[in-house]
UniProtKB/TrEMBL annotation:
<keyword id="KW-0479">Metal-binding</keyword>
<dbReference type="InterPro" id="IPR015889">
    <property type="entry name" value="Intradiol_dOase_core"/>
</dbReference>
<feature type="compositionally biased region" description="Polar residues">
    <location>
        <begin position="1"/>
        <end position="11"/>
    </location>
</feature>
<dbReference type="InterPro" id="IPR000627">
    <property type="entry name" value="Intradiol_dOase_C"/>
</dbReference>
<dbReference type="Pfam" id="PF00775">
    <property type="entry name" value="Dioxygenase_C"/>
</dbReference>
<feature type="compositionally biased region" description="Low complexity">
    <location>
        <begin position="13"/>
        <end position="25"/>
    </location>
</feature>
<dbReference type="InterPro" id="IPR012800">
    <property type="entry name" value="Cchol_dOase_actb"/>
</dbReference>
<keyword id="KW-0408">Iron</keyword>
<feature type="region of interest" description="Disordered">
    <location>
        <begin position="1"/>
        <end position="35"/>
    </location>
</feature>
<protein>
    <submittedName>
        <fullName>Catechol 1,2-dioxygenase</fullName>
        <ecNumber>1.13.11.1</ecNumber>
    </submittedName>
</protein>
<dbReference type="InterPro" id="IPR050770">
    <property type="entry name" value="Intradiol_RC_Dioxygenase"/>
</dbReference>
<dbReference type="GO" id="GO:0008199">
    <property type="term" value="F:ferric iron binding"/>
</dbReference>
<dbReference type="GO" id="GO:0018576">
    <property type="term" value="F:catechol 1,2-dioxygenase activity"/>
</dbReference>
<comment type="similarity">
    <text>Belongs to the intradiol ring-cleavage dioxygenase family.</text>
</comment>
<keyword id="KW-0223">Dioxygenase</keyword>
<dbReference type="InterPro" id="IPR007535">
    <property type="entry name" value="Catechol_dOase_N"/>
</dbReference>
<feature type="domain" description="Intradiol ring-cleavage dioxygenases">
    <location>
        <begin position="142"/>
        <end position="170"/>
    </location>
</feature>
Length: 288
């Protein structure tokens, strides 16, 4: 194991605001997570987690200096406010895989750290809030229908949609952006249909200037996620799906740092005579 040193890479662009990690930590802390896990189940999970870590230490013959570097790194992740970032990049996809075992409808994907509840409610045909500079980017018109497993349209379903701007910044986590930029809650019409205009997202680089970046570098990895839209689709009496949509032929699709792509979640828009990218995607919700 090499010594992990503090590293600031000025050569790589770092599109996420320096404070995004701590903003994500503050948001998470305010929500105060709970789970109805029994004490017995919790004890079994904790025991196995420790045992897995012990096995890694024994297998690799981890030394005391390496152990102390590990301790320092864990402290740095916490002090840098990077636990939501680190966990959602490297761990969340496995939890999502467990959830996916029990579902038949649209495939899910990770939520990531940048969801904010209560985005402005928008009608079934609408444009996401965006700044004048965002309007320079290729528009994306994303239409479809929300249905149940039998194909019945779900009126009044909601699509919470959020994504990064062309520079990789998420509103609420980058102080220069207006709140709710590129975020909205779209309500489907009487047939469950919607048509949302936004902009074509760009690939997104997770912050590289802290301990998560050091971890990626230590693995000889890269910090990129393919361009994506985030969605939570919900309807009364149905199980909500948290997912992401990606773009055919997009960079990093086969090596997403967050391991969160699925073939069923790839859009293939076509450019219309109006110069906008157009695509249809339908969502299917499981019963609650
Ligand atoms: C995301 O925005 O998709 C994301 C960011 C950091 C960690 C995981 C996902
Ligand atoms: Fe994202």
């Amino acid at each position: 194991m090499t010594t992990i040193e503090t590293h600031t890479d000025t050569a790589l662009p770092s599109p996420t605001a320096a404070g995004s990690g701590s903003a994500a930590t503050d948001k998470f802390k305010n929500e105060r997570a709970t789970a109805d896990t029994s004490p017995e189940r919790l004890a079994a999970i904790a025991k196995d987690a420790l045992s897995a870590l012990h096995n890694v230490i024994l297998e690799h013959g981890v030394t005391y200096p390496e152990y102390r570097v590990f301790k320092q790194w864990l402290i740095d992740v916490g002090e840098g406010g990077e636990w939501p970032l680190f966990l959602d990049v490297f761990i969340e996809h496995a939890v999502e895989e467990v959830l996916a075992r029990s579902r038949k409808g649209t495939k899910g994907s990770i939520e990531g750290p940048y969801y904010v509840a209560n985005a402005p409610i928008l009608p079934s045909v609408s444009t996401l809030p965006m700044r004048a500079e965002d309007r320079e980017i290729t528009p994306l018109v994303f239409a479809g229908q929300v249905t149940d497993l039998d194909g019945n349209g779900l009126a009044g379903a909601s699509l919470e949609l959020w994504h990064a701007d062309n520079d990789g910044y998420y509103s609420h986590f980058a102080p220069h952006l207006p709140d709710w930029n590129l975020r909205g809650t779209i309500i489907t019409d009487e047939d469950g249909r919607y048509e949302i205009t936004t902009i074509q997202p760009a690939p997104y680089q997770i912050p590289t200037d802290g301990p998560t970046g050091q971890f990626i570098e230590a693995q000889n990895g890269h910090p990129w996620r393919p361009a994506h839209l985030h969605l939570i689709v919900s309807a009364p009496g149905k199980e909500s799906v948290t997912t992401q949509l990606y773009f055919a032929g997009g960079e990093w699709l086969d090596s997403d740092v967050a391991s969160a792509t699925k073939p069923e979640l790839i859009l293939d828009p076509t450019t219309g005579d109006d110069g906008k990218n157009h695509v249809t995607y339908n969502f299917v919700l499981d019963p609650a």
